[in-house]
Specification:
Layout lengths: L4 E6 L3 H8 L2 H5 L1 E6 L4 H4 L7 E5 L5 H14 L4 E7 L14 E6 L4 H12 L7 H4 L17 H11 L4 H8 L3 H15 L4 H11 L6
Parallel strand pairs: 1-2, 1-3, 3-4, 4-5
C-alpha cells in the first residue's frame, strides 16, 4: 500500500494551485495544501508535510529565507523547493540551507518541474548549473560583484519608500553611520553612484511582492 505524502504549496496564486492540484496528486500520490505567505510560519509548526513548494512570484525573498531557516531548525527533514525563482536578482542566499532540494526558474514549465520533482523524490538535488557555479549566465548581473545581503536589501527597499538615512536607521534600529556604510556597499555592488540610480536599479531588479 502506497503512503500518501503531504506537500505544502506556499503561494497567493489560486490559478497556480488549481494547475498543480490537477496534476501532482495523481502524478506523485500526494496531498496538496495551499498556505498563504502571511501564514506560512504559523501553519508549518504542527504540519507533517514532507515537502514545501515556495512560489517566489508571490513570496518575498527575505520572508522565504526566514521561513526556510525556521524549517531547518524545527523540521530539518522537510525538503524545500522553489518555483518561479527570479533570474534578475541574485537569490543564491536561499540555497545555503541544507533543506533546499530544488530550484526552478520563472520560465520552467510544469513538465520540467515534474521531472525535477521525480529526481528529488529519488534523493537528488535539482539546482540550475548557473546557481551551482555561482554565476547567472543569462543576465550576468553579479558576475563580478558580491550578492546583496539581507540587510543591504532592507536598506535598498527602504530607499524605494523615500526614506532618509536617519529614517532607515530608526526603522532598523542602527546608527545613521551604519546605514551610510550599507549604502556605500550597495552602491559598489550594483554599480551606481547616487541614490537616484540606486532607486532606479531597485525598481527594475529588486524582487519584492506587490500585494
Amino acid at each position: 500500500m502506497f503512503k500518501i505524502l503531504h506537500w505544502i504549496v506556499v503561494s497567493r496564486s489560486q490559478v497556480l494551485m488549481e494547475l498543480l492540484a490537477g496534476r501532482w496528486p495523481q502524478e506523485f500520490l500526494v496531498k496538496l495544501s495551499q498556505v498563504s505567505p502571511d501564514e506560512m510560519c504559523d501553519q508549518i509548526k504542527d504540519n507533517q508535510a514532507s515537502m514545501v513548494v515556495i512560489d517566489l512570484s508571490t513570496v518575498d525573498l527575505q520572508k522565504a529565507y526566514q521561513f526556510q531557516r525556521l524549517l531547518a531548525r524545527q523540521h530539518p527533514s522537510v525538503r524545500v523547493v522553489y518555483i518561479q525563482f527570479p533570474k534578475l536578482v541574485d537569490a543564491r542566499f536561499l540555497m545555503q540551507a541544507p533543506t533546499t532540494a530544488g530550484v526552478f526558474y520563472l520560465d520552467a514549465g510544469l513538465t520540467e518541474i515534474s521531472l525535477g520533482l521525480s529526481n528529488i523524490l529519488r534523493g537528488h538535488r535539482v539546482i540550475p548549473i548557473q546557481l551551482v557555479n555561482g554565476v547567472n549566465d543569462d543576465f550576468g548581473l553579479y558576475e563580478d560583484t558580491e550578492p546583496l545581503t539581507i540587510r543591504e536589501r532592507e536598506v535598498l527597499q527602504a530607499l524605494l519608500s523615500g526614506s532618509t538615512n536617519l529614517d532607515i536607521a530608526n526603522q532598523l534600529f542602527v546608527s545613521e553611520s551604519t546605514i551610510k556604510t550599507h549604502l556605500y556597499r550597495v552602491f559598489r555592488k550594483i554599480g551606481v553612484s547616487s541614490r537616484g540610480q540606486a532607486i532606479a536599479w531597485a525598481q527594475t531588479y529588486l524582487h519584492d511582492v506587490v500585494v
